[in-house]
User: Fold Sigma-70 family RNA polymerase sigma factor from Candidatus Pseudobacter hemicellulosilyticus.
Amino acid sequence: MYERIANGDEVAFRQAHDLFKARLFYYAKRFRLEWEEVKDVVAEAFLHLWNGRSQLQSNDHLKNFLYFAVRNQALKALEARNKHQSYTQSTPLDQTASADHELISHRIIEAEMGQLLADGIARLAPDYRRIFELSYYEGKNPREIAALMAMNPATVRSQKRRAIEMLREWIRKRSFLLLLPVSFLTADLTPLKKILDFLARKG
Assistant:
């Protein structure tokens, strides 16, 4: 894929966008950004990738660059909100290949877990999916969600609980499908479980 992107193939670029977008959303969300900021950060990362495409060296290089670009853009967003000290610097594409492997591997694992969760969310019934997204991505409570969706708050709570139950089952049955290197096939799924536990406690 990287060779096609490096040669300016827009179809390959869109394929990369579809492949990594959900993973990068999950990664950016871990910086405690607002949902609109998350979308902007990921969009900027893909823009940087396209602008620097001629320097791509491998598919791993492509993947690592996207994670670092999201990280840098997320830190810039935090700095702009005066919630982070100014220490972020732009990371040229040709420097990412030498980045700390352990850190990158950990981030890739997290992002793959995020993809597993995103796949499960996409398969929920429309109302269940919307309720979960408003709760997780936008941090809204049942009363706020009920107002947006013209529902009773009790119905929102009930459907949210059901959505979480369905996602738990999805993760349990499909965790072996994580697209990780062989050395990470035993990756701990605790982060995903913590997300669902946290949302369940929110009511």
